[in-house]
Design a protein that fits this description.
The protein is of the alpha/beta class. It is built from 15 helices and eleven strands.
Length: 371
């Protein structure tokens, strides 16, 4: 087994949140507006936000897409956005340590690990705020049974996909991938040619949960044993996998579609196929209970959850939109091989992943792949 870096799971950050960083921070949202009307109307909210003059954004979305996105907000309102960017788990760890220590630096947090949002909600670290575009999101669909509507807002989605380099895979291998991309990963034809990302990442964990738990009758743990027998290379991040797959250093991976869309638009020899159904890692925004710029934070949430803000992030992030009525005009959707995914949103409510079950699941996946 070739392990490029030590795998770091979500479970460790979740433990830090609940065991090592208790407390609700140094402030409260009790007297702050819960919607635009409470703020005296949109004009009043904008005026108060401009007086504060800044938004502190903690975001796990990619730096390139996020920087391009927030420039639109800055230009529209004349309010500077101070960006802190890191991976979802490490970003959340930083936020947890700050809030647990009574320091409130973040105005808005964006990340895609639902279990961490659950922990933050239990700790009282995120607050209710109903934006004007609240009804544009079908929470029963994208966040089924979660109870966090109005505390977290959807952005775009990174969708689980099995991608391959068409120049280093044979016609026979590509036939296997197109017929059943999940089963193909366990086929001996791909031994030594697979690269996989950190199972602690939200997208990867969800991909495995969908295949192993949700589709246990078709794939299950036996399927993962077959993948492990193919000696996959394991990476802490999917980003270097994408780079090496494009170069042909690996043939196939189980990752996320958004990592490959720009490469494909630029002519890279890559295609991908979705499992049926496939997992969606939903990027979500939360409003901390205590923030350094409470009115600017609320204005940013209004803009980011609006049709304008949502669609701009979907464009820059190359992911599928999550609001009702979103129209897919991406270049990738026009590729002859592209097929619209059937999405599974059940990771948040999958019985085996509740409580300590999530950490146990991640540990078992990692142990199986490293055998």
């Amino acid at each position: 087994m070739r392990i490029r870096k030590v795998l770091v799971g979500i479970a460790a950050v979740s433990s830090l949140l609940l065991a090592g960083c208790g407390g609700s921070g140094s402030g409260t949202s009790e007297n702050l507006p819960k919607n635009v009307a409470d703020a005296g109307g949109m004009d009043s909210l904008i005026e108060k936000a401009k007086e504060e003059g800044e938004v502190s954004l903690y975001a796990a979305t990619t730096e390139k897409s996020t920087t391009a996105w927030i420039e639109h907000f800055e230009k529209k309102y004349g309010i500077q956005v101070k960006l802190y960017r890191d991976g979802s788990t490490t970003l959340f760890q930083k936020w947890a340590q700050e809030v647990g220590g009574g320091v409130d630096n973040a105005d808005v947090v964006i990340q895609n690990v639902y279990q961490l949002w659950q922990d933050a909600e239990k700790e009282g670290w995120i607050t209710d705020y109903q934006t004007q575009n609240y009804d544009a999101y079908d929470y029963d669909k994208v966040l089924p049974g979660t109870g966090l509507a109005g505390k977290i807002y959807p952005l775009h989605q990174s969708i689980g996909a099995i991608a391959w380099n068409t120049e280093v895979t044979t016609p026979e291998q590509q036939k296997l991938l197109r017929e059943d991309p999940v089963a193909a990963l366990a086929d001996p034809a791909f031994k030594g040619r697979i690269a996989l990302g950190d199972t602690g990442g939200a997208t990867t964990a969800g991909n495995y949960a969908n295949v192993i738990l949700h589709q246990s009758d078709k794939y299950g743990w036996d399927w993962l044993d077959g993948v492990a027998d193919n000696d996959p290379a394991l990476f802490e991040s999917q980003i270097p996998i994408a780079e090496q797959l494009v170069k042909g250093e690996y043939a196939v991976t189980f990752g996320t579609d958004t990592l490959y869309n720009d490469y494909i638009d630029e002519g890279a020899p890559v295609e991908y196929a979705y499992p049926t159904p496939t997992n969606a890692a939903l990027w979500m925004m939360g409003l901390p209970t205590a923030t350094p710029h409470p009115y600017a934070a609320r204005l940013f949430l209004e803009w980011a959850s609006s049709d304008e803000g949502h669609d701009l992030m979907a464009t820059y992030g190359t992911g599928a939109g999550s609001r009702t009525g979103w129209v897919d005009e991406r270049a990738i959707a026009k590729e002859t091989w592209y097929s619209k995914p059937e999405i599974w949103y059940g990771m948040a409510t999958q019985p085996e992943l509740q409580g300590d079950g999530f950490a146990d699941f991640v540990s078992k996946v990692n142990a199986t792949l490293k055998k």
